[in-house]
Write a structure and sequence with these properties.
There is one protein chain. 63% of the residues lie in helices and 2% in strands. With 562 residues, the protein is mainly α. The strands form two sheets. A two-stranded antiparallel ribbon has the order 1-2. Strands 3-4 form a two-stranded antiparallel sheet. The N terminus and C terminus are likely disordered.
Amino acid sequence: MNTQTAIIRRCGAGGMFYLLAATSLLLVLLIAADGVRKGLDAIVPNYYRHTASLAIAISEAAHGTTGMVGLVEVEKALDKSGYGINPNRELMAVLNAHPEQADAALRAAADLTIADRSKTFGLALNETGMIDYYYVAFKLFGYHVRSIYALYIGILAVMAFCFIGSFRHRAIFIVPSILYLLLLLIDQDALRSSDIGFGPLTNSRMLPFLSLYPVLYCLTLVGSGRGFRPIDAIGAAIAGLVFAFVVNARTYAYWQAGPLVALVVLIVVARLLPWRLPLRAHLSRLSVYPVLVFALSAAILIQNHHWRRDAVVYGTATFSGHGYWLAYLVSTMPSFQWLIPQLERDSGVTIQDSDAYAGALLRIKIKERGERLEDYLAGDYWNESKRDPLARQVVFDLWRQYPGIMIEHYLRALAPVGINLLKELGLIALAVAAVGIGPHTPLLWLLRAAALIAIGGIAGAIALAAVGLPYVVPAARRLSALVIPVALLALWVVPTVIVMPFTDTRLVESASTFTDPRMADVNDAVWLCLLICACSTRLKLPRAFRFWQTDQNKKRVLPAKI
């Protein structure tokens, strides 16, 4: 009898594994199909950082340059089609709609015969990681515009396989991967079928969505409470490489490493200090080895990336590419729009976007100091090593002169996170109420899903799935081991927003119709953590609201042994 039960349980676990593994891979395919359906797979964002990186990547991949330096002749060839250093938005719109023309432009630049290899240029003012991204995409998939999106989907598939490989015998821990992919699919589906705004997912400003996946994998390894096997070490190393690959292109994503650092500190403190800490027993069961492998792998790639940059061309660049204080200054634009006419008069700059706003403030500060603008330039561009300290001084000036407005600025930055948190908690509360009403039969589960979809759309259905999972699959309770790691990820949002109070900085659309992706990945992190926590326990209504249920009505949909 015991032998038969053991065989059934092994078969059940195997069936669950194949179901969850297939679901995660299916979601990767759905993300790819949705991107192709909307034409997002053929879009190159019409920003300088992307088109310049494109020219440098082709120079390295096809013409053998090094040091993240591009050939001027390659840039000029791309400029004819619209992919130049100064992007031609009209021509690029045509290329986005006709991928075959985009492929021809890329192929022509790759096949170009170079007459003068001494004429080169570097990427100014921005992170250089997109050069590596385009380089790898073209090397793996050829000089096609769709290669850029194919690399993104390939990275998602690799991380999905990392989850599948590590949790072959504890399949329930694949659920966080499925939740992440669901949220990413929803995020992509909300993007426009054009380059307006910050789409597609391969836009460097959207890449923090991607780096959240390897961080989630590492947190799951830490909390799963299993031995750290070679396959886990390989997965953690791959996750670290993916994370570093993203942060080289978008250093803002570094915030996602904060929970990993905090987790290591808490685990070490819980094990070493003699007195008892709250949750000490839970922390002591967690493993630091996945984080160490993750950090070592990421550090090696990040260091290699910066070591490969030409020392002369990038002599004045900051480590991050985007100066912190400049980004902070840019983020204050929505709070000081009333000051723009005066800034335009004092600086002589026409302010049409956030970059011009920051430039005007910097120019005014230079005049106040009695210095020359030329002293802060390196050729035709800002000297990054001088501009960021100047931006820091301007930020301090704003705090001294307008403390009330700066505090309001922080409240504006925190508001989207707080509002979304309330919405998400409300959906989970509604899902708990729906699960608590009536017996757990298939028909009523369908009715609950219909009601939650009518109220909260797809997010409502996901909330119901998370709350209902422990009732359908008792093994979901094992996800309670992830509560501490994912809670740290959610809590880390608060210092992140305080340190980087980014908000919508555009003048064209209202904030009510647009969410800055730097906030969106923060929102996704919080929502993801709430869903994982909901999956880990049977949330119930207070007893007074469950008076109509009998023990007979509370039967599981699936047998307990599965």
